[in-house]
């Protein structure tokens, strides 16, 4: 999830997206592999890093000062250290097809926008199966216990469904907690959030924080200038392209590795929020194309910077600070 503190009504064309994978584009280079140059391959050793002063950057991150973070990284870039920061600032939208996503390596491009029900189904099956089994065993109890206990245990499934209807957030929290039992869950989260972090950094959007905690997974990249444009509903097409690429990065990372994407819903809602706040307004077809293009662009960046993405995943999984994550990006080759 990309966390930009922006409130807005969400009007998501999910049905049409399922058919065409959303958002617009019109660039110059033909498809298959987007014309995205890999970030600088020169690695920076710890010894070389020690020659630079990171106190200004660290202070800005701690203060959640996006302008300060950007200025500090710009200065470090001028000094020759932050070579990957804002190394891919120019995005050029173009018409993009699902076939291009498949050619690039997205495993199931047609289903990228369809939420996976794996975790939900597994949770409900476990609840129903477990309570059913206990009810059968309880039926062997003597006397009235054998009558009432199975009914009480069996009603747990109905209670779970009732809670989900009245307060979906509580049910989703339970499902999220249950999902940790899947062996790929933590890796998916790390890959997803590291993709948001890396693409934002390469494009030149300052990162202020991140979380891999269950139910709170996000990358915080609030930029004060962008926030003002979003709040005022005056996000132009250039900035929309940048935010779209970052928003779709997590989905792209999962799509490159897994047959089914699980964490796309929050990203699609974030993207729709940006679209709703942009000017000029774009049609549903343009929205569908923009999403396809954003997935293609971010997936190209991730493929061209696979080693960096994997190193960042490891750092974030170890709860590295934002500054340590930035150093990891710059040190990886």
Task: Explain what the structure shows.
- With 333 residues, the chain is mainly α.
- It has 2 domains: 2-40 and 83-116 and 183-331, Methane Monooxygenase Hydroxylase, Chain G, domain 1 (Up-down Bundle); 118-179, no CATH class.
- It is built from 16 helices and 3 strands.
- It has helices spanning 14-20, 46-49, 55-62, 66-78, 98-104, 118-138, 145-166, 168-179, 185-203, 224-232, 237-247, 249-257, 264-276, 284-304, 306-317, 322-331; strands at 2-3, 209-211, 218-220.
- The chain has a 3-stranded mixed sheet with strand order 1-3-2.
- A hairpin with a 6-residue loop joins β2 and β3 (218-220).
- α3 packs antiparallel against α4, α9 (185-203) packs across α12 and α11 (237-247) crosses α14.
- The longest helix is centred in the middle third of the chain and has 22 residues, at 145-166.
- The two termini are 26 Å apart.
- Residues 5-33 and 40-47 have low confidence and may be disordered.
Keywords:
333 residues, mainly alpha, Methane Monooxygenase Hydroxylase, Chain G, domain 1, 2 domains, three-stranded mixed sheet, 16 helices, 59% helix, elongated, ATP-dependent peptidase activity, ATP binding, membrane
Describe the structure in brief:
Residues 37-49 have a biased composition (Low complexity). By secondary structure, the chain is mainly α. The chain is 59% helix and 2% strand.
User: What's the SSE pattern?
Assistant: EHHHHHHHHHEEHHHHHHH
End-to-end separation: 26 Å
Q: Number of helix segments?
A: 16
CATH class descriptor name of the largest domain: Mainly Alpha
> Are there runs of 5+ residues with pLDDT below 50, and where?
5-33, 40-47
What does the radius of gyration come to?
23 Å
- Strand residues, percent: under 5%
Order of strands in the sheet with most strands:
1-3-2
**CATH-derived architecture of the largest domain:** Up-down Bundle
CATH topology of the largest domain: Methane Monooxygenase Hydroxylase, Chain G, domain 1
């Amino acid at each position: 999830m990309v966390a930009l503190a922006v409130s807005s009504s969400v009007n998501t064309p999910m049905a049409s997206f399922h058919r065409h994978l959303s958002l617009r584009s019109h660039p110059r280079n033909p498809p298959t592999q987007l014309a995205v140059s890999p970030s600088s391959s020169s690695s920076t050793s710890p010894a070389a890093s020690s020659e630079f002063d990171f106190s200004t950057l660290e202070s800005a991150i701690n203060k959640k000062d996006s302008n300060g973070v950007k200025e500090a990284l710009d200065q470090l870039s001028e000094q020759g250290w932050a070579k990957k920061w804002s190394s891919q600032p120019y995005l050029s939208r173009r018409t993009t097809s699902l076939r291009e996503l498949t050619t690039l390596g997205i495993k199931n491009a047609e289903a990228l926008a369809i939420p996976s029900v794996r975790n939900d189904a597994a949770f409900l099956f476990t609840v129903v199966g477990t309570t059913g089994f206990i009810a059968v065993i309880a039926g062997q109890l003597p006397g009235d216990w054998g009558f009432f206990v199975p009914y009480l245990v069996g009603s747990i499934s109905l209670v779970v469904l009732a809670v989900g209807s009245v307060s979906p957030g509580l049910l989703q929290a339970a499902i999220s907690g249950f999902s940790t039992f899947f062996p790929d869950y933590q890796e998916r989260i790390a890959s997803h959030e590291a993709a948001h972090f890396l693409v934002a950094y390469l494009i030149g959007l300052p990162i202020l924080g991140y979380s891999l905690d269950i139910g709170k997974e996000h990358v915080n990249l609030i930029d004060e200038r962008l926030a003002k444009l979003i709040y005022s509903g005056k996000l132009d097409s250039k900035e929309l392209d940048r935010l779209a690429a970052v928003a779709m990065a997590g989905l792209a990372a999962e799509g490159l590795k897994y047959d089914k994407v699980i964490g796309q819903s929050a990203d699609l809602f974030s993207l729709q929020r940006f679209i709703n706040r942009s000017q000029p307004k774009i049609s549903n077809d343009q929205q569908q194309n923009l999403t396809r293009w954003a997935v293609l662009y971010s997936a190209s960046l991730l493929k061209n910077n696979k080693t960096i993405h994997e190193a960042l995943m490891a750092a974030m999984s170890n709860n590295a600070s934002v500054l340590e994550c930035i150093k990891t990006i710059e040190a990886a080759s």
